């Protein structure tokens, strides 16, 4: 039996759709389908049935998944234990959304790391990197992580507000009422390629906003706001201390959450636990940076 085929099976069982499984494996949906067919031929029984909800496990598939999942955990633990000896520095991979990764966590991790005996892979992207996909040892996400064998907790709540540049406000005049917002140009995400529904906060204001600038990263949106392109909804931990930005309608705030998660089996390793505790403590120490506006 080819272990790679089993890996494809585990991924499809978790995500239930060929496209999602392929995205997490970094391959095509055709390759996933071919791998599953190869495994079913080797085993001599069907693993999935396909319906409108995607791929569901057969009774035999459920039994096989239980053992395959357990084997994957055992192999991962064995790999981690094999890496740990007196001559090897542990390496921890952190997956984090780019907003809080680039604009808060990266500098603090780098500063702390100088005095540690471990290495960090810091994956900061405008997408969700999860521990269940095995792309990260510790993951920080906007949405509550799903999956079995996962430790998860809220890392912090945070607020976002509406911001613009002083130059923009001088040109367009003060915004005193919520009803005025639809008459202004806006900055935001590219709506049809959002990686999380938690980023659809513009829809909480109006379905009729006119966007002059859209980007996949929050940093680019903030830079556009500083240049006076329009109004932008930005996290307060990024925007409130920026000299080139002012708050618009401060009574309007958006509440969101960052979650931290890791694999339950890996949580017992010293290197990962040390990084986990540092991240949790770093956010706890600077709560005022995230929660300085009144909640709505």
TrEMBL record:
The keyword Transmembrane helix does not apply. It comes from the Bacteria. Keywords: DNA-binding, Transcription, Transcription regulation. GO terms for molecular function: DNA binding; DNA-binding transcription factor activity. Residues 1-58 form the HTH lysR-type domain. InterPro entries: LTTR, LysR_HTH_N, LysR_subst-bd, WH-like_DNA-bd_sf, WH_DNA-bd_sf. The keyword Transcription regulation applies. Pfam families: HTH_1, LysR_substrate. SUPFAM superfamilies: Periplasmic binding protein-like II, Winged helix' DNA-binding domain. Belongs to the LysR transcriptional regulatory family. PANTHER family: TRANSCRIPTIONAL REGULATOR, TRANSCRIPTIONAL REGULATORY PROTEIN. This is DNA-binding transcriptional LysR family regulator. It comes from Marinobacter oulmenensis.
């Amino acid at each position: 039996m080819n272990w790679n085929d089993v890996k494809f099976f585990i991924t499809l069982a978790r995500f239930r759709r060929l496209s999602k499984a392929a995205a997490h494996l970094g391959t095509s949906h055709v390759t996933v389908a071919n791998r599953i067919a190869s495994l079913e031929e080797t085993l001599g029984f069907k693993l999935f049935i396909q319906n409108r909800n995607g791929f569901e496990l057969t009774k035999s598939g459920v039994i096989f998944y239980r053992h395959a999942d357990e084997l994957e955990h055992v192999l991962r633990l064995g790999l981690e234990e094999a890496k740990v000896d007196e001559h090897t520095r542990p390496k921890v991979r952190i997956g984090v959304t780019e907003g809080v990764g680039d604009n808060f966590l990266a500098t603090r991790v780098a500063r702390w790391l100088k005095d540690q005996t471990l290495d960090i892979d810091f994956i900061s992207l405008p997408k969700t990197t999860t521990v269940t996909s095995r792309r990260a040892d510790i993951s920080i996400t906007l949405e509550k992580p799903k999956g079995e064998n996962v430790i998860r907790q809220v890392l912090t709540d945070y607020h976002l507000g509406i911001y613009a540049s002083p130059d923009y406000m001088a040109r367009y005049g003060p915004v005193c009422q919520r009803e005025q917002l639809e008459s202004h140009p806006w900055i935001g995400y590219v709506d049809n390629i959002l990686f999380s529904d938690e980023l659809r906060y513009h829809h909480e204001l109006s379905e009729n906003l006119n966007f002059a600038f859209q980007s996949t990263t929050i940093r680019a949106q903030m830079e556009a706001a500083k240049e006076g392109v329009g109004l932008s909804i930005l996290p307060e931990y990024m925007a409130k201390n920026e000299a080139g930005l002012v708050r618009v309608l401060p009574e309007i705030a958006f509440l969101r959450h960052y979650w931290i998660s890791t694999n339950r089996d890996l949580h017992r390793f010293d290197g990962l636990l040390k990084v986990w505790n540092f991240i949790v403590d770093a956010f706890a120490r600077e709560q005022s940076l995230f929660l300085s506006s009144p909640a709505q």
